[in-house]
Design brief:
With 282 residues, the chain is α/β, with parallel strands linked by helices. It is built from 10 helices and 12 strands. Helices cover 32% and strands 23% of the residues. 45% of the residues are buried.
Length: 282
């Protein structure tokens, strides 16, 4: 099954394995659709190794996950962006202490329809397209056709990262078509020859074409080194240091077995990051 079928906005998985679940701790995980494939695959492996544990998992966006953590309605918030200062203040006012664990590295990749002749865009060109200042593909070496701008919605951590790393926090054009998930962007772009979207590294497939950015292709190597300019960490947030079953699950994601899952899902494991020092912070 393709990844976009695995991460619709309000996907909820309730996995009950084995007997004695009445005594098991219930873990709730909510948030990023980018992190969702990692969380889902890790959860399935964890449940097999720990029968009797009850875990629910849902997407909805990084902002929704962090909001749920602040509202004390989730044990773990998955996020593809760092928590904002305003969210930390709101959390502390409610007695919540958001604590981050980085579980993987990602790159945000601009994508087009496979028949689009454009192969590369600079950060400046991407910024101008998403601000609505460049509106025709011929302005960036393509056909004389209007660019259909596809973007994540504002609850998305990918939207926030794109706004910071590409737009320098400028506003996205109101003509942009907003999508609720990376999978939805893949679907839209794969069916529209004039569309431009952006997704996490783990969502790349043959139905769309990845563009290079400033001549650099997104890969594990270039994301770690920061040679690729639109890279970021992926997070799990908890209220303080995780305890109980939540801590066990996070340790599993960070373990060699968990990091193999990260790589299998198309993202960059932390072990690769440790082997290759970054060239500088963004």
């Amino acid at each position: 099954m393709k990844k976009y079928l695995r991460q619709v906005i309000l996907i909820v998985l309730c996995l009950l394995v084995g007997a004695g679940t009445g005594l098991a701790e219930n873990i709730v995980i909510k948030g990023s659709t980018t992190v969702l494939p990692i969380a889902q695959a890790a959860l399935e492996a964890y449940m097999k190794a720990n029968p009797g544990t009850k875990i629910s998992l849902s997407g909805g966006g990084s902002g929704e996950g962090i909001k749920a953590l602040i509202d004390n309605s989730t044990d773990i918030a998955t996020s593809s962006r760092e928590i904002k200062g305003s969210e930390i203040e709101r959390a502390k006012s409610k007695g919540i202490n958001p604590t981050a664990t980085v579980v993987a590295i990602d790159a945000i990749v601009p994508i087009v329809h496979p028949k689009n002749p454009v192969k590369d865009l600079s950060i400046d060109q991407l910024s101008q397209i998403y601000q609505g200042k460049i509106t025709n593909w011929k302005e960036v070496g393509g056909d004389d056709l209007q660019i259909v701008v596809i973007s994540r919605d504002s609850s998305s951590g990918t939207f926030e990262s794109w706004a910071e790393l590409v737009l320098n926090k400028a506003k996205v054009t109101p003509r942009a078509q907003l999508q609720a998930s990376s999978g939805a962007i893949v679907q839209v772009v794969s069916k529209n020859k004039y569309a431009l979207g952006y997704i996490g590294l783990g969502y790349l497939d043959k139905t769309t074409k990845a563009l290079t950015v400033g001549g650099v292709a997104a890969s594990a190597k270039t994301a770690i080194s920061r040679e690729y300019p639109i890279s970021r960490p992926l997070y799990l947030y908890t209220n303080g240091e995780a305890g109980g079953e939540s801590a066990k699950f996070i340790r599993f994601v960070l373990s060699p077995a968990g990091q193999k899952i990260v790589a299998k899902e198309g993202f960059v494991p932390l072990a690769d990051s440790a082997k290759s020092p970054a060239k500088g912070k963004k």
